């Protein structure tokens, strides 16, 4: 079920921050009342599509920060694996230079609670516990407001990389709604006309466009 309009699940998990420091207790709750959060899941460290996304978020980090948004990544790898990857140069398949937090969800509970775990536990006929599917996270992205409420989510299958510019557009649209009380139509971008959520407002917008 969608988390949009609901409080983001609370968690406390290890993470690597500033690209070099392991912390044993990290929570998105630390940002409530202070910053919005773009929280994204990726399948696995030391893979192929994942570093392109992680580095793309880093390349746009200044754009998120100037909008008051904290970027946080998460996978089901351990914090030690995160750190090793962060210390590996890009030309060797690493993500050296990434500075935003990477959460280590080795228990898979964070991914499960956000609805992005690419499988589930079940039992064999003999009663043995097994994992059915892939024990990694889908490419889920959640935009969380300052009150801890999810305002946008997308979930891509494992082979499908994200468009990071679209994540920035979502932030801009939310800020426009909050500041001007208008709603944002299809393909809206910063600087374009929005519209009032009334029959007259829609009519005026369509007439002008």
TrEMBL record:
Tell me a Gene Ontology molecular-function term this record carries. thioredoxin peroxidase activity
* Active-site feature positions: 50 (cysteine sulfenic acid (-soh) intermediate)
What UniProt keywords are attached to this protein's entry? Cytoplasm, Disulfide bond, Oxidoreductase, Peroxidase, Redox-active center
Determine if Oxidoreductase is one of this entry's keywords: yes
Q: Where is the Thioredoxin domain?
A: 2-176
Mind naming one GO cellular-component term on file for this protein? cytosol
Entries under InterPro entries matching the protein: AhpC/TSA, Peroxiredoxin, Peroxiredoxin_AhpC-typ, Peroxiredoxin_C, Thioredoxin-like_sf, Thioredoxin_domain
Q: From the Swiss-Prot or TrEMBL record, state where the protein is found.
A: Cytoplasm
Signal peptide region? none
One Pfam family name is 1-cysPrx_C
Q: Which GO terms describe its biological process?
A: cell redox homeostasis; cellular response to stress; hydrogen peroxide catabolic process; response to oxidative stress
Keyword Cytoplasm among record annotations? yes
| Main subcellular localisation | cytoplasm
Similarity-based family: Belongs to the peroxiredoxin family. AhpC/Prx1 subfamily.
Q: What does this protein do?
A: Thiol-specific peroxidase that catalyzes the reduction of hydrogen peroxide and organic hydroperoxides to water and alcohols, respectively. Plays a role in cell protection against oxidative stress by detoxifying peroxides.
Task: List the protein's name.
Answer: Thioredoxin peroxidase
């Amino acid at each position: 079920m969608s988390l949009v309009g609901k409080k983001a699940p609370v968690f406390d998990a290890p993470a690597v921050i500033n690209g070099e420091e392991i912390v044993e207790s990290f929570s998105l709750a630390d940002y409530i009342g202070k910053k919005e959060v773009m929280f994204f899941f990726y399948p696995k460290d030391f893979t192929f599509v994942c570093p392109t996304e992680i580095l793309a978020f880093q390349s746009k980090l200044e754009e998120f920060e100037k909008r008051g948004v904290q970027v946080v990544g998460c996978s089901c790898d351990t914090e030690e694996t995160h750190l090793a990857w962060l210390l590996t140069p890009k030309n060797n398949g690493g993500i050296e230079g990434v500075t935003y937090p990477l959460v280590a969800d080795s228990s898979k509970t964070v991914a499960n609670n956000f609805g992005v775990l690419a499988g589930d536990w079940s039992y064999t006929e003999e009663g043995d516990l097994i994992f059915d599917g892939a024990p990694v996270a889908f490419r889920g992205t959640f935009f969380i407001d300052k009150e801890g409420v999810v305002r946008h989510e997308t979930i891509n299958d494992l082979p499908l990389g994200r468009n990071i510019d679209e994540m920035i557009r979502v932030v801009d649209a939310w800020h426009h709604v909050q500041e001007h009380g208008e709603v944002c139509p299809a393909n809206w971008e910063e600087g374009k006309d929005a519209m009032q959520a009334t029959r007259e407002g829609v009519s005026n917008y369509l007439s002008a466009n």
